[in-house]
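Dear Dr. H.,

I hope your travels went smoothly. While you were away I took the liberty of generating a structure for the chain from your last submission, since the lab meeting agenda had it listed for discussion. I wanted you to have the full record in hand beforehand rather than looking at slides cold. The sequence, exactly as received, is reproduced here:
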Amino acid sequence: MVSHEQVLSNVPSILKTSAPILNRIMCFVKSFAAWMRSCADYWAAAAIYDSLNKLSDSELRKRGLSRATLVHDVFRSCDC
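The corresponding predicted structure, in token form, is as follows:
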């Protein structure tokens, strides 16, 4: 029969062997979350661009924008 002391004495060795796997999983999760945030930022920028692109050149000038630099300005404002 296994005692509680024997089980508890094995816990540190189990954690040491699984630590690299857990670190890789956490790294993947963090990278995936960053990628999702980036996708959301680009999606928002594309929506803003679509709405601004429908405006006339004079309306864009009133907002301090130019059609020639509209894409750059939109993406810069969204920190993409």
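Two observations you may find useful: The chain has a mean pLDDT of 84. Helices lie at 4-53, 57-62, 70-77.

With kind regards,
E. W.
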